[in-house]
Amino acid sequence: MNARKPRRHRVASSQVGLMLLMVAGVFAVLSPRFLTPGNLLNVCTSASVVAIVGLGMTLAIASGNFDLSVGSTAAFAGCVTVSLVQQIGVALAILAGLATGAAVGLINGLIVTELGVPAFIATLGMLTIVRGAALIYTGGRDIYLYGQTQYKILSSGLTPVLLALALAFVLWFVLQHTRFGRHILATGSNAMSARRVGVRTSLVLLGVFSIVGATAALSGLILSAQVLTGNGRLATGLELSAIAVVVLGGTPLTGGQASIAGTLQGSVLVAVINNGLNLLNVSIFYQNVTLGLLLLGTIALEALRTDRRRTKQLTTR
Amino acid sequence: MDEIQRVPILAVQNLSRRFPGVLALDNVSFDILAGEVHALVGENGAGKSTLIGILAGVYQPSAGQVLLDQKPALFPDPLSSQRAGISVIFQEFSLLPHLSVAENVFISREPRRGLTVDWATMNRQTQEILRTLNVEIDPATLVSELAVGQQQLVEIARALSAKTRIIVMDEPTAALNEREAVRLLEIVRSLAAGGVSVLYVSHRLEEVFSIADRITVLRDGRHIVTEGRSAITEQRVVSAMVGRELVHSTRPSRTAGAIVLETKDVTVDGGLVRNVSFSLRRGEVLGLAGLMGSGCSELMEGLYGLREITAGSFLIEDRPVRIANPRSAILTGVGLVPEDRKRQSVFPDLSVAHNLTIGNLPRWFRAFPGLLDLAGERRKTLDYKRQLNIRFTRPEQRISGLSGGNQQKVILARALAGNCRLLLLAEPTRGIDVGAKAEIYALIDRLVQKGIAVILQTSELPELIRLADRCIVFVAGEPRGELCGAEITQEAVMSLATGLSHRVTVDSASLRSIQ
Amino acid sequence: MRILQTHKSRIPDAPATGSSINQVDWDLLWERFGTAVVTITIWLIAGLSTPRFANVDNFVSVLRQSAFVGVSAVGMTFAIIAGTFDLSVGSTQALCAWGAVSVAKVAGVFPAFVTAVALGGVIGLCNGSLVALVRIPAFIATLGTMFLVNGLTYILTNGQTARFSGKPFVWWGNAQVMSLPVPFVVFLGCALLGAAILHRTSFGRFIYAIGCSREAANVAGVPVAKTTILVFIVVGLFTGLGAALLGARLYSAGPGLEPGFELNVIATVVLGGTRLAGGRGSMLGTVAAAILFATLANVLNLSHVDAFVQRVVVGFVLLLALSVEGVRQRLAEYWSKRAARIPQSSQPL
Q: C144 and A296 in contact by Cβ < 8 A?
């Protein structure tokens, strides 16, 4: 069935993979603690949190959009869930949290598709509003969950990793093999053309933004489960890390293409670097510097490469 | 024609569409029969695009209706028009470059197996359709990897896969080379023979007369005439399009002065254009002609510093110059009127004055470097308004409010404002209506008379013949031959450009340059 | 000739030629003065409804508050008109403010301001080079420098806040001249300077041209790369200046000075009527929008609205203002493009 599937453009993901291996190798040599099971689990857990929202963001970027409100959404959904656990039980509370995230995403989508506000601006406004909503909801205080160990399941052991992998598989499948997925790529490829050939781009974008909201919520839930606390200030700046791992993974910002595997690798790469620097007792302050350098380096390489490719095309035409 | 074919498959009745300030379509009625190639012709702004938009479901009519099989039909969105069996192939295509050929053919109608897209069926069916068109393209290829001509075939395949009964083609040969264009015309004929109706929108009459069963002419949004091909002459179609008999103005006799530009063995971008040697005198117009991809545009861009001149020498008034970028071109006295007005020359949000002076602002330097002399700028703008007869109210007015012809005159003024000695004109009248065209020709004549040297690159042979004193014909990046004065005829240029010695019956459409 | 005339007026390229000649261009007026009108209206309403709003001290406080975002927004106006933007201003602000406070402690006021402005300029140079020379999209390039500068600030400061309350330094943040707060005076000066550069110099003209169409600007002989780099430097310079003022106001500065600052600055500029896609915008709008935001926060404060609710309200105002602009623009584009021909695809940002 896959025999004649369209060839994907090899985005830069192989490059990320290589970088990941090298970095991991270096840390393994430098720090004996790096390769211990406990530490690897740590790395995977923190990678998973960013990966989950990054996977949603991959879809958004593939559709030619952004979502800057994911950090706020994560916080809001976390607070909602934590506050509801006591009353309606863990399972329902988790569902409620995910629904909250999806709802926020839907609103984002409506602002973009119906009011014609560029996604950048729309989600920027929502970033402020939803963060405020989360703080109002909690009254600016922490909501503690004493003894609700059931909720802890969400963040303990391999759960986050499994969730991230499952989500990655589902989204990959959706993107490659379902009509909705192909239409996401079509919309990102050229929204006007897609509309003209009968793709309902508005519906596609509503779907995409809802998914992004839900994935942001899931990340928020895991974060809140880690500390068993609901806090309106949770996940500040998550939006930028999410975009960073997507870009590192090789999904181009121009839309129409997506690399799910790349996003996963990007998240792990960032997590490995942060963790390795930690183990080597490098100040936590260097983490942002490395992330910045990494981001700029990857994109600069990519930019220079496409530049060369473009020139070549011109001469062979 | 037998009785069944007489039945109109699609008809528009009293169709009007109003945009703020413009009545783009004014009470238009005509019909399309089953299995007919129906040509829709008209100048720019005649309302062709609006009509296509309505059939495609992109716009709604302000008044009137569309009849499909003699029943009123509404197309509130593109999907409903497609479901009704209408496929529109837009000039700028509606392909999704990151998806495969098969996906583009079946987009929004993908065969599915349960939840998933059925790739095998989709690829197989695409292959079958492409085979009926006699093309060998792997359905799994990404569309971005195809040539323009192939991309158009994908559009046609999409129309066929949708069991389309009516295909609307908007200027389908605009981006094609000669061979592809001929191929396309064959395909259109075979589609019609297979019972599909084709609404063929074009303003290239040669093409239209070689293919259409009936011809409809629009002008200023109004329906002028619909006639069978054999019942109407080319001359009548032209006068219906233009609204009056065309007066052919001729090239004035000119006396050339001293040599302004001399090139020797110029190579652009390491071989895109090669071995170009010519000289150009004051008060002379040199034409560049060639099929699409022949290198004329690239040479123009090279002369203006938009591309690199990698070899050869380039002398202006006997002094060797190196033009590295447009800025240095302007400073050397070279001005360009670019090919694509919307993309390359006009700043729609800026005022007329700002558009006019942007190329050489530093000339308004006064005591302080960088400070602009706004009063002087205004004076200069009004000056050019008078000289070039540009119609606008105030220099502060946004340029987007001007007609195409007047915008083009502003761009011409911009090119001249930099103390221009050598003027490069790329497709100077593309997308401009007939009246403004004649005015721009007259302007060019006046400038040349004043001693400016002009290089003209155009895909319209009549324009070339009207303006150029000499003409170099390019083939595949190299000059193939030079024609002088009365030697410049459509036949001579075409036979050089196509490399054929016998008289060819190719239309001027294929004589186009690459973007 | 008459035939020509009718023909011309029917060319859909020119939907408005005939009609708009003697009409007022409301679109343009709103773009230029809309935010100012809204701000004044809000002042009037607030003055009438909130008694404590309309007194001199409060006005002074509003104006002072507007300056800290405002000065940086002056620079950002340049960037957004040029069709780009800078996400790194938040990190830059923290670093520059810290630099100013630290230098003020050891070397005095003038070196402090020079340090802040110079640091900003250097960061701007980096951003500009990444965007113009390496051709990284501004979004990613400035996101990268944002992380980079943020990390750098933590490393340099070791996570500590620098404090200094020397009179001559804090005068710049807290004093008044002619009953106007000093930061606001500086802000106004910056805005005037900015407006002068935008409208009276070739650099300014280039910025509008690039924002309108990068390709057309290049063909017209505009030095696109040089101008772009310069634009980012301008953003950095103004951000550095604003940061020094903030440091003076707070007597202190350290990493994580004002979270979300970059978004506030961009929001201010866009609220001021500058089009995010570039090519249009004015300094007056930016000034008005900065005051508008400060006023809003002030009124909400005076009305004892919860700080968190304030955040939501501000977000709503932003979204509301921006949807109005978006919808208006969409309508305008709809009409003009539809009139001309089937529109070319317009990629979302």
A: yes
